[in-house]
Write a structure and sequence with these properties.
rod-shaped, about 80 residues, 1 helix, mainly alpha
Length: about 80
């Protein structure tokens, strides 16, 4: 076997390992991109829920402030 063929066959496992490594890297990048998209979606939903709860809390606070004002006026009239 000539030396050039020996080098070729000797480097085949290295090339195979490189191809497998690149395929694994591409798969990992795809998985990471998918997980990132999922995390962004979850974050958007959590922010939306927090915004809704904040608005609801503000409405309750406004309502309680109006009730408190009315109670203050009624109590002042009784004095």
């Amino acid at each position: 076997m000539p030396e050039s063929q020996s080098r070729l066959y000797g480097s085949l496992p290295a090339w195979g390992a490189l191809v497998i490594s690149l395929a694994a890297l591409a798969f990992s990048a795809g998985t990471l991109r998918s997980e990132l998209a999922t995390a962004q979606s979850r974050l958007a939903k959590l922010e939306q829920r927090a915004d809704i709860q904040s608005r609801a809390g503000n409405q309750v606070n406004d309502r309680l402030a109006r009730i408190e004002t009315k109670l203050d006026l009624v109590l002042e009239e009784r004095r």
